[in-house]
Specification:
single chain; 320 residues; mainly alpha
Length: 320
């Protein structure tokens, strides 16, 4: 295979390659047997890199967006209504379904996956797939605000642990995690466009596919974190297998519904990505902190499924 074919092939499967490197890196660290304290330090350093990578990635992506295109589309409100509706369906199943105790984490994971805001890189993937980055950006900002408002109201209905926290405490905790990596780079990009247009135009020209490659690095790190969660002994092997399949069903549902809503507004790709892609790192933190530790496995597995589907969409345009 010559170079002209190798590079496009790598680009098409870059997300899968990043995920494989993330899982491989996790097992490599284990094989080196560096000790629990050293492993924890490595994980901490890598995790602390993520917000900076995400900030740069989104700043580059936002520099390519026209402000006039940020007006919310109709499908955005439809997907918000779907998320809230499914959240209450999940709580009803938990309370009145008379289901086995081990399924509690499944429904808590479903709840966290449904209410988690869209992925920080949704504009990057939407643009790469031929969708409208501006629509996805608007959704990313508003879905983060929705999550900050809805989660403090809905999580306490599912978990006594969350019920002990006030609305404003939960709101500020969630908002503090999404503001620096989504809202702040958008504000800086829009300000730069107004105050220093030449500098902004240079950055927009420089950005090109840079944000997509930065996202692939983030996926590698996120996958290593998910591998740590999956193989960390939180639940038994057969239960984890069920959780992974269940997460795949949730992911498929979100992508399908998002694309259906988007088709009604001539914005199929952006709507599908916006509802289907989730900020799983935030979702894992919310699930493990306010619901139960095992529910984080569902959200972590969701991240794997969404990136498998994204990779397939890059390779097979008919799936978009």
């Amino acid at each position: 295979m010559n170079k002209s074919k190798v590079i496009p092939t790598i680009k098409k499967w870059l997300l899968m390659i990043s995920m494989s490197l993330g899982i491989g890196g996790y097992f490599l660290i284990l094989a080196l047997n560096l000790g629990q304290e050293t492993n924890h330090q490595i994980a901490t350093v890598v995790t602390e890199m993520l917000p900076y990578l995400l900030f740069v990635m989104l700043f580059l992506e936002f520099s390519k967006i026209e402000p006039r295109d940020l007006f919310p589309k109709k499908w955005l409100w439809m997907t918000f209504a779907f998320q809230i509706f499914m959240a209450f369906v999940t709580i009803a199943i938990q309370k009145y379904g008379c289901l086995p105790q081990w399924t509690t984490a499944m429904w808590n994971g479903w709840l966290a996956s449904m209410l988690s805001p869209t992925a920080t890189a949704v504009a990057v993937m939407s643009s790469k797939l031929g969708g409208k980055a501006a629509s996805a950006t608007t959704y990313a900002v508003l879905s983060s605000l929705l999550a900050a408002c809805a989660i403090p109201l809905i999580f306490p209905l599912a978990s006594p642990q969350a019920a002990d926290l006030s609305f404003w405490m939960l709101f500020t905790k969630i908002f503090a995690k999404v503001f620096p990596v989504i809202i702040l780079p958008l504000m800086i990009s829009l300000s730069l466009r107004k105050l220093a247009p030449k500098t902004h135009d240079f950055i927009a020209h420089f950005a090109k596919d840079k944000s997509f490659y930065l996202w692939s690095v983030c996926i590698m790190v996120n996958t290593a974190q998910v591998a740590r969660l999956l193989f960390g002994g939180i639940a038994e092997g057969w239960i984890i297998g069920i959780y992974v399949v269940f997460a795949g069903l949730i992911s498929a549902l979100n992508f399908i519904v998002g694309k259906k809503f988007g088709s009604l507004c001539d914005d199929r790709i952006s709507a599908g990505q916006s509802l289907g892609q989730k900020n799983t790192i935030l979702g894992i933190w919310m699930a493990m902190t306010f619901l139960d530790p095992a529910s984080g496995i569902i959200v972590g597995a969701y991240m794997l499924w969404q990136n498998v589907f994204n990779s397939l969409q890059l390779t097979y345009p008919k799936l978009r």
